[in-house]
Amino acid sequence: xxxxxxxxxxxxxxxxxxxxxxxxxxxxxxxxxxxxxxxxxxxxxxxxxxxxxxxxxxxxxxxxxxxxxxxxxxxxxxxxxxxxxxxxxxxxxxxxxxxxxxxxxxxxxxxxxxxxxxxxxxxxxxxxxxxxxxxxxxxxxxxxxxxxxxxxxxxxxxxxxxxxxxxxxxxxxxxxxxxxxxxxxxxxxxxxxxxxxxxxxxxxxxxxxxxxxxxxxxxxxxxxxxxxxxxxxxxxxxxxxxxxxxxxxxxxxxxxxxxxxxxxxxxxxxxxxxxxxxxxxxxxxxxxxxxxxxxxxxxxxxxxxxxxxxxxxxxxxxxxxxxxxxxxxxxxxxxxxxxxxxxxxxxxxxxxxxxxxxxxxxxxxxxxxxxxxxxxxxxxxxxxxxxxxxxxxxxxxxxxxxxxxxxxxxxxxxxxxxxxxxxxxxxxxxxxxxxxxxxxxxxxxx
Length: 446
Ligand code: ADP
Fold this sequence. Notes:
Structural class: alpha+beta
Helix content: 40-55%
Shape: rod-shaped
Radius of gyration: 51 Å
Distance between the termini: 70 Å
Largest sheet: 5 strands, antiparallel
Bound molecules: adenosine-5'-diphosphate
Order of helices and strands: HHEEHEEEHHHEHEEHEEHHEE
């Protein structure tokens, strides 16, 4: 409807403007011709007007300076010799050009009045009136066309919005259906929405989210099943040992050995649950307050703690440290250094060697733990940081391992914005390298 109103009024203004130009041109021509006559008399005016046949208007009036008509083209009801008090003539007598136009009853009616001035003196007014039914018919026809076009357009718009809203709600239904399936734990129900609009993008984001949730759900299941399996083994041993003590007649010495075995299995259970708790803590995004940690001091503490184990396994520890400050929880760093060094001792050979190197390079603190031990086969290198992964199950179990130590180290390094890599030493053994961002003192000393 708005389009209809807008188009009609634009066309009407264009026709009015053309009408204005044409009527004004005619009035100016008549004014010029009249000003060439010596005196404005009824006779001379009539002669001038008659000589200008192309000024073909519905009504032409020429008045003197006091609004008395010297000429009126109307035959019946002529105003000649009478006062003509049309508003346009009155305004033109004030010295201004006037134009008026309207569209009414299928016709365009336009009027103009122009003052006749000679050397600044007002001589009279030329008044022209045109009543154009052809232009009126044109406007009416155009209005009818625009109306039918706008009605057709409006129907098309309504149909299109109906079509689009149906398509939109169908696509929304599909998304809702998938969200409901996902709520019920079915992550395989992907949304299939074609296109590049917002809804298609929402569908793609949703699918990615579902994939990630699916992966983390599988990881969680795997973790629970691995953890249960790990807990089951020492518990089964404890059960077996205690049953044997109860059912069999055995001497005090054997009984004691069995009870010591039970104690060892209980220790293993304790260590395992501690590691599981650490992993759960790492999985929860809970941030602990970071502190300034002197890395060399932490490394020294770990070495002091592990020297007895190294002595027991006949392994020597060489430690080289530089002053380096880190912004992290000290317990995290302790755990990282401890797990790597303990592994380096556990998976070493008799008379072997462990080297710990701590340096500060540019903005990084680099910790290297190298050993002369059994090494890690190249096909296992990619998996050693996975939870519950062990290269040699028997050796790991014998060494009291659970396959969780390196994954804890990996998660802790990541949590502190660092990187960890593993490589084989050319002379045999393994090198673990940890890069952590060094604490940078700001200029104001903070
Ligand atoms: P575990 O508790 O079994 O030691 P880890 O996650 O600490 O678990 O280590 C995973 C596996 O990687 C170990 O079972 C072991 O086979 C291998 N590994 C780790 N560190 C070393 C090392 N320094 N030398 C040789 N093998 C290692």
